[in-house]
Amino acid sequence: MRRNSFARTSSPSSSEDHTSSLPPFPSRQLLVLAICRICEPIAFMGIFPYVYFMIEDFHVTDDANRISFYAGLVTSAFTFAEFSTGILWGRLSDKIGRKPVLLTGLAGTALSVLVFGFAPNLTVALLARAIGGLLNGNQGVLQSTVAELVTAKEHQPRAYTIMPVVWCLGSIIGPMIGGALARPCISYPQLFSPGTIWDRYPYLLPNLFSAFIVLVGVINGFLFLEETHVQKKMQRDPGLELGDWILSKLTGIRKCAEPRDEKSKFSDRDEIRPLLDHDEQLPTYQTNENTPVNSPRLRSASVTTIAKDPLDLTQSKDNLGMGISQTFTRPVVLNIISFGILAFHTMTFDQLLPVFLATAPPKDEVEPSLPFKFVDGFNLDSKTVGIILSIQGVYQLLLNTVVVPKVLRRFGALRSFRFIVVAYFLLYLVTPYLVLLPSAYRMVGLAVVLVWKCTFATVVYPSNAILTADSAPSRLALGTINGVAASTASLCRAFGPTISGILYSVGLQSGYSGLAWWFTAVVAIGGAVAGLMIPDPSRSPACSDNVNAHDRDLEIAEQDRA
Fold it and tell me: Which of 123, 346, 422, 501 is the most exposed place for a label (fewest CB within 10 A)?
């Protein structure tokens, strides 16, 4: 009978009650998470403008056509290593919580960029990238954290675009800093003299900057990031306590958030609302929106004995107590496959583009034979490449802020995802032909391709993240599911640059410079097939409890009140 009182109806009063009962949007915790997240794209994307010139300086080959192959290896070293430990970090986050795994990943990134900056040869550079991948499983853990912070489906379009916005900011800062600070003795001879450490290690300066940013992210996460795992969030966190003490000394304000009391009870719907509107609450490390008193999500998490879901992992001694077939259902597997293929061809584009822009026209003219046989490049320097990559990051930022939430609300995650994966292959078919444009129109063509690529990428990744979260049979399994997804994506990102680097070198030597791009188009067609097979999570009975988790929380709260 109580379930009937919470049934959805089409009456205005029911709609108003449902809207008013939504948990507050976790803006403060997402901000803290965003500060942690921005460190990684700065470190990861920062090498792209200068990796081509770095390989040249290592003198590993005298053949300019093979530089793209070694550049692909440097890019792939991180993702190959990330693949080998991604599932481990996802499972570990299900056992010990999301926060310690996220902070470990950031520390690994800091160590990686420092070693990379001091790399005297290709071997050390590959080792440095591998260290970062081995110690960093944050991609899947971040997805799990966002999914646990945002339980209301109405908040998903807004929430799932925040991390892509942050990635865009990092993709603006990283290439800009990497391109500007690399080889400072050449770029700024009046400030950096030959014979100094900056001459011996010409790529140290941008990596020192990245390491400093990552250190800021670690401190921010330790002091202000709350644990979101339902079995760990009620535990004492010395880092949060220290952050609260620091804020109280800086602002003179005592902790305004409610304590984490797992025995707190609901007395009335009005009493569980914060005294201040969530946009007006006083600043502190622990927000009212994430306390048991004010969030039905946390309250339901503390009353695990009420849960009747046979797939609930709290009924097992091990967080992985669910069977493989119960965790990795057909919708989950299809989303993971789609994510992996998507990661393959989008990373291939990101790695190929800087090499494509830096490639010089061949010394020996290759007689073109259209439509497929031609060789050319943009022959741009590292500064210009960095500026171009940063401009595309600015455009992605605007898209994520203004366009993507509206698109996801209007068309939904599934329709948006399907449309983009079906059309993606056309981008890769067109890109290599930019070099055939007249010189005056090459940059215009490049701008069109970048707008196309950025628009697709900024919509498709949040769509896939929402579909994966909504398809998960239990939120306690999100760490494992996203860990597998991250490992799959890492493996695909590793193979993408390596294979494309080989094909790009072969294409330059044989006269078919579009070979790598056209191969990527074929892979994208495979992704379209997998994407079209993904079912609608809202129509799946197995996923209904997950999609409507907020409604279940309200029922539990009402039962407690009664």
Answer: 123
Across the chain, mean pLDDT equals 77
Rounded average pLDDT over 63-90: 81
Q: Say if CB 483 and CB 89 are below 8 A apart.
A: yes
Burial of 263 (0-12, 13-18, 19+ CB in 10 A): exposed
Q: Is 213 exposed, middle or buried (0-12, 13-18, 19+ CB in 10 A)?
A: buried
Provide DSSP, 362-421: PSSPP--BTTTBB-------HHHHHHHHHHHHHHHHHIIIIIHHHHHHHHHHHHHHHHHH
Query: Would the pTM of this model clear 0.70, i.e. be above it?
Result: no
The 3-class SS string of 414-469 reads HHHHHHHHHHHHHHHHHHHHHHHCCHHHHHHHHHHHHHHHHHHHHHHHHHHHHHHH
Taken in order of first residue, the domains within the chain and their CATH numbers are 23-232+325-552 (1.20.1250.20), 238-312 (no CATH)
* Residue 178 in tokens: 């990497």
| % of the chain exceeding 70 in pLDDT | 77
* DSSP-based three-state secondary structure for 201: coil
pLDDT band of residue 17 (cuts 50, 70, 90) is low
The span from the CA of 212 to the CA of 471, in Å, is 38
Write out pLDDT tens, residues 248-278.
887 655 454 433 333 333 333 333 333 334 3
